[in-house]
Amino acid sequence: MKNKLEVGQRITALDLAQALEGQEGVFLAQQGGQAFRVEARAGHSIKSIIPVGRRFVETNPALLAQEPWTIERMPEAEGAQRN
User: How far is CA 57 from CA 10, 12, 31, 54, 74, in A?
Assistant: First the structure.
């Protein structure tokens, strides 16, 4: 089993879902100039993924697929309910 990411800890990975497997919490994931708020829960590597900020349009999707994700665990809001 992978180690759980601590708040503020960053990793890089080519596969976002695989990197978040076994993790729980809220993450900031970035690839190709685009940022996403990602929520991971037990049994679902990605429960939700929401674009953050201005959308960046990549002209060559094949190049984007080869660029690694930068993933950082974010603090969860106090009193946040888990569904």
Answer: 24, 21, 12, 10, 25
Q: What is the pLDDT of residues 12-41, one digit of tens each?
A: 999 999 999 999 999 999 998 889 999 998
pLDDT digits (tens, 9 = 90+) for 44-53: 789 999 999 8
Domain of 21, in residue numbers: 10-74
Note whether residue 81 is domain-resident.
no
Residue 24 lies in a domain: yes
Interatomic CA distance for residues 46 and 22, integer angstroms: 10
CA distance 39 to 56: 21
